[in-house]
Amino acid sequence: DRSSGTRVSDTELRVYKDPSKGELPLLPEEHVQDSAKDVTYICPFIGPVRGSLSVTNYRLFFRCTDREPVFGLDLPLGVLSRVEKIGAATSRGDVSYGLACKDMRNLRFVHKEPEDSLKKSVFEVLMKFAFPVSNNMSLFAFEYKQVFPENGWKVYDPLAEYKRQGLPNESWRISKVNDHYELCDSYPAALVVPVTITDEELRRVSSFRAKGRIPVLSWIHPESQAAVVRASQPMVGQNGRRCKEDEKLLQAIMDANAQSHKMFIFDARPSVNAAANKMKGGGYESEDAYQNAELVFLDIHNIHVMRESLRKLKEVVYPNIEDSHWLSNLESTHWLEHIKLILAGALRIADKVESGKTSVVVHCSDGWDRTPQLTSLALIMLDSHYRTIRGFQILLEKEWLSFGHRFQQRVGHGDKNHTDADRSPIFLQFIDCVWQMTRQFPAAFEFNEYFLITILDHLYSCLFGTFLCNSEQQRLKEEVPKHTVSLWSFVNSQLEEFVNPLYVGYPSHVLFPTVGIRHLQLWVTYYIRWNPRMRPQEPVHQRYKELLAKRAELQKRVEELQREAANRTASSSSERAGSPTRSITPVQTFV
Amino acid sequence: MLSLGSGGAKSTKPSFVSYVTPEEIKSEKDPPKQEKHPDLLPGEVEFCSANPILKYTQDDLSQRGVFGTLFCTNFRVTFISDEKPQEKTDKTFKNKLYGENDIPLMCVDHIYGVYDEKRKLITGGLVKNKYPSKMIIHCKDLRVFQFSLTFSKEEDAKKIFQGIAHHCLEEKSLKCVFAFSYMGTPSPEMQWKQETVMFDSPEDWTQEMKRTKANCRLVTENENFELSQRLPKYFVIPLTIGDLFSYQGKGLPIWCWSHYSGCALFKASFPPVTQEDGDFQKHLDTMINAVAHNHLYSVKTEDLSESLPNIQDIQQSYNKFKQFFLIENSTDFWLSDVKWFSSLESSGWLDIIRQCLQKAVEVVECLEKDNTNVLITEEEGTDLCCVISSLAQIMLDPYYRTLMGFQSLVQKEWVAGCHAFLDRCNHLHQKDKEYHSPVFLLFLECVWQLVHQHSPAFQFSETYLTVLSDSVHVPVFSTFLFNSSHHRESVMKAESPLAQSGPLSCPTVWDWSVQFDSKAQNFFFNPLYLEKVKHDRAVRKPHKPKHQRNLSLPSTAFKTPPKKGFFKDETDSLKKMLRVKRLSRWRGSPDAPTATTREFFESWQHRPLDYHGLLLPCLDGPAVHIWMQRYLRWIPEVYILGGGSVAVMTKLMELLSQVQDLKRVLEQRDSSQAAKLDHRPYFQHRLLSFDSSGRLSSSFPFAYTCYRSFKPIIPTGLMQSLMVTDSLASQEDEASSVVSFV
Question: Which member of A348, A443, A558 has the closest CB to residue B662?
């Protein structure tokens, strides 16, 4: 049985084929907190439906009772960003509640207030459990005790990953300077730096880089030794402060790559914003101080612009789409233009590393939003390992989680403060970019679309510990790996769900996607998946599975035939005329 | 490749022209070169040529190019490079009639001349005065060619320019079309053509009526076009139509297709307007009555000229739309990328596609759900009537989703059905723009949407549709050269004695071997197609009562109130019915699909999907897409190297070929059993196996050679695209820089 509650990702209303099974499917340690009959769900697509509503410490479960076939809503409370009473009670005592969700939908319920004013309404209970952090309770992930065959917390071992890249080597060492997160509390413990730079020098560099996020290696090209290095902005300020250790470090990064006497610094921000940062002590590398480095601005906007863009997108796609102005409405959200800029930035980075054989340093302001977007996309383009299911998990663990993308702040797990300006769909945007690449290269990725949607669903669900907290240090302090289940435990225990049957692992292939808007599409199966009209006839992953089965069957037939042919030639070696001379290549499987 | 203006170090060609003529240079440096000539098709004649001409490469602004000779023949404009032909990576999809440097004369859309940096559209008048330094040719298949004329002798340049302009732009007579000089020998592989039902004999029509269990009357009285020259040679009408000659060839309801319930789809042109008002109304009544009589005395009529854009609107919209794909250089590309979506929307082309599909769904709903006869009308009855009736048939009848079925449908509705291809495609460059309109292309666009949404339901691929849309402008096929059956027959008869080898050898487009060898034809088949399993062969189950099908639906969401003017419910009085009949004409703005068709779609969507049953398109904004393969295939900026759907398709084809290999092996082993021949040709795609597909570009199989380097295309001018001016952009990255959460 499925232990995850979000199996029904592609339809808003789950249809229960057998009405008796419309029971609430409870997870281990999940308990019903309250329930109410006679709740009306105002469905924007099929109109009001009446039914009963249950709230557990993990989910909201609505089951309609006045319709055949029986169907319902089943969503983790973690996706809620806001629950509010709309207007006053009507003369009949009905109260409306609006539920805004992080996954591109809004729900509306109408419910009669309990006559006993002391009794809490089911929605008041809902508010308590939807925002446990604000109510001094723990997230459900800390209660959930499902055991899976595989332990996903073991997926990422930094030293093993660096070893795969051939590190340490004669130019790069693994420093323990941040072992206790003293150099930088948002960085991981293991850092890869040039051998020529001492830990003492790194400490000085950390005072020159915003939040102490010094330039460290993310990835090294196996042949050219060109490196992808990530950092935060230098604290140049209005007076043009310099730091000779920082200059030495960048020079050492360049020297570590013998093939090039040049280096590129990619500042993800628009140059205007980078310059404005000087007022606040930040800024960008000057050409005087860093002589062989060329600075390039990638014009990607900040978290607030991205948040606003997604808000507009939600307005355009949910619940109703204005068909005749669909394209201009889509354009007005700028969402795909932002996607284009991010992909274009990553493409330029990958091009410099692959074609130019030059090392690159990537940073934005703090180096935890636009920087991981760019480095991880560039890494996917450059290294086919990150296009496998496990490789992609490692990439997320490394570039996003260990390097301190502030998931807690950006998503706001269990926090009722929905207007928090620190929330922003940075990670969603990255997954969207990955999806765009899987569209353009349908055979180059081991995972399917359902894998990406599952990751996004559990970004919000708070069922797994993976995306909790803001940094590696926080996760250790909260003992997240000890008390919660990793999303990868769940995923890796049923890999066949997530496999792209068309995958061909071109091993040494660099992918250069096309970033023209003409080839970018809105991810309809994610952003508009609640609209039943936009639902694919056959859920995509279903079709994938069928294809997989078909292929397995074929392979079996091939093998049987080959065996038969082998038997025949063995038994009658004299009779060679009829046997097929050409051997049929066995179909490969990638499970 | 030579670069201009960079000192010309490697170049033996002059970088300016006035002092020495190319002849002198040639005699000086090069040993006299063998004059290159194009390989002419049988019947092809060379008109003029010029050398050296510089053909610019399309992919950048650097003004690089290749020198060669430009020819103009009675079939095409062709460029032959001076350089040795490069080894092509893949020739699997080579067109036998024209190559990548050939432009069939009919395929030329516009010619621009660059005079002193100014770009001017070439029309007849301009030609005589001067020749431009650069000639830009926009093709109807969306290729763009740019030639520099400044390097060849003045008179040569002038001659070639005037020759091309004359043969591509000037009005000409049908006899000058290359098809009438073409002497191609009919190929032995005529199998496909034979399988396509041509609808040029009474038997074809009888057979079709039998297939759909139609209860109508075949008209053979027009065999010699005595009834009308605008009517097909043979056609089918309702049983109750009496005196055919009283119709003067207009306003006759012509049968298109019968639903298994017995109701049928008819199309008609308007009755003659010369009569008095009363007569017109009387005529209309007889027409509607006759259709209603076909089944259960119910009918819905729809005047397409009222509810759909007219052919001029279609033409204008397409003219705007295609401009976005005729890209001359990178700067243009990235500039137009910025406002891409709103530009698309402003052309209205996708909206017209949506409207046509919407109308077809309404027709389907009447036939399938209400079991009502449908009569669609328009002025001539051969433009939008063809679009809507063909689309409805594709949605309803899985036979038309096979390759042979689709070709037969085009024959039935368009070719035998007298669509004025010659006028609509403007093959003869008539100045009168009123009659031009890409109606057939619009139909293919709509079919593509269906193929895109329900790929496993179609035996043919999008490549097939793209090639078909190109073939309209290849002046060889009789299919697209005439305005009606009568026109076709009279011209063919008149022309045949001129050809020495007896009858005019003018193949139909369905004889694909004229253009492609059998290996290339494999690309026409969709590897995702779900072939029908043999045992449920009964496509149509006429005895199965319709309401039973409805019962299998969940009853909740789909209970629709009986519609107004829904005839079957009132079978008591014939007169009453006639009154309601006129009420039941559709009303509704084209933009907002009526609520009932929405419901019809949703109830269909709730049923388990049967790719061999009814097929409906989703018409919501995000579901209507651009036919990327057709429109983006020549634009290097959007090539995805190693990606695109070709990556999937090749893999699927490979898998299928393995299955077929296996089948063959099995058959060989059971040699006692007579090997049954599969109708489909074997997939032989081992040639493009996966060592190459990693490097194939997304525009495969159309443009292979354009992009050979493995370099990314970095966009230029990105900042112009996104000027976020609101205050958010300048806000600090961390709004509340220290949030205590530790």
Answer: A558
